[in-house]
Amino acid sequence: MTGLVVAGALYVDLGDGREIAKGDRAGQIQWRRLPRARYECLRCQTTETPNGHGPGDIARFVAAIRTSHTCRIRQPQAA
Ligand SMILES: [Zn+2]
Known about the structure:
This protein is an alpha+beta fold. It has one domain. 18% of the residues lie in helices and 29% in strands. It is built from one helix and five strands; from the N terminus they run βββββα. A three-stranded antiparallel β-sheet has the order 1-4-5, covered by helices on one side. The chain is elongated. The model has no long low-confidence stretch (mean pLDDT 90). Zinc ion binds next to loops.
């Protein structure tokens, strides 16, 4: 695999949560430690973090950051 370049590192901490079994909040997740994520671009040395701290914010960030990151370093031109 020639030409393969590692462009960034995505760190994800899934947190510590348990589903509530009974009561008014049954089915919801009770978090002891919220999930976290960050993306480090190895080209422009930028670190990006999610806009919010909720589990949905983290999930959207992880799903989109590799394509939504606007790199400050120009992409190398294909030969
Ligand atoms: Zn970048």
